[in-house]
Structures
1.
Amino acid sequence: MTTLLIEGGDYTIVILLFLLFFFGIPIILGIIALTLRRKKPKTAKVLGIITAVYLIISLGYCGIMTL
């Protein structure tokens, strides 16, 4: 039989931290990109692309690794 170093417990904080990293950063970057859309459209487009790539990677590869 194998035993875990940390058994049981409430993992709500850990799940919330993962969700914050998966969705929090892209939401903040998306808001920044939307606010820069009129003043600096090229910068806003780059931030939008970075946001999309970050979201795809964090939900895809990193999301699978956390399971």
Note: Residues 14-65 form one domain.
2.
Amino acid sequence: MAPVLVLCGPPAWAGAAPDGGDATEVVGLTGADSALLTLPPRRSPDRPMPVVLLLPDADGPGPRTELYGRRLLENGIALLELPGGEDPENGGLPPSGPPLAPLLAAIAADPRLDARQVALMALGEGARRILPGLAAGGPVAALVLLYPGCDAVLAGAARRVGGAPRILLLHGDEDAANDPGACAAVAGAFPAQREVRHRVLAGAGYGWDAYAMVRPGGAVLLPHPAGNGRRAWSQPDARTTEVAADRVLGFILAALAGR
């Protein structure tokens, strides 16, 4: 069954608009999957909004995606946030990715959203879920991959991507789950005509945005993006998350503007 948009309540992190009203209008996506669509507080009723599909890491949406979502909403971009996925076996790709084509069709059917300005953003395991869905192409302006667990399997999936004209691959240089050489191979595996930006954050490890899960300076074990029951150490950092969120926002705004 194709996705259907239905009204839900606001997410826990949704803020208030300057006029005191709700900052976002939240929508659930029912069908094969469920999701939350959050609309920016400032929007024109006769001008459709760009939208970012956000796939969280394996632990699902929550505080780790909060800052990214806030930055997008503050800049007039709607946010369609999908649930977390399953633990992939044997270090491969997850068994099933989100139904990208129905999601894009649902966006096109909503007059508030601009189906010509859609970007994808994925964290950790979410990146491994979204790449297979891009093999057939699609009207996607940009793809953002944060610490996706770079390896030969992911590089193989990157070679088949056909639907993201601009790509940002961002990870830290102290991330054991994302070796810089392996990530360079993934970046180089995308089709030659794609504009790929491979960026490395100095001093950052895996899952820098999990700072709400630990005390300042603490560390936490997160699901490894390649799954198979493995875990990856994360020493989250709020400042690194702010830097990453700003880089992601700048990249998405430029891609949606065609720059």
Note: The chain has six helices and eleven strands.
3.
Amino acid sequence: MALNFDEFQKVVETAQQADAVKGDLKRALKKVTSAVENLQGALSDMEKVMADDYVAAPKERKVRTPRAPKEDGADGTTAKKPGRPRKSAAE
């Protein structure tokens, strides 16, 4: 039996293409699987919310801490905010 390298090369190329397609399909399957899992989780959350005995948990807010008063400048003037000065109405 004589070796035909052209046919062997075609077989190798076909196998490489099949491996590439197989890899693409695996990646697509992983994406679809994760999407389905997320959808199932959302549906279970929705079932909990739609249940007759569902009561929403009250949100806990952080206690507001009062701000420290701003200190005046060393020469007795009040501290100014940075930025452009306001235009007066006379101008």
Note: The chain has a mean pLDDT of 84.
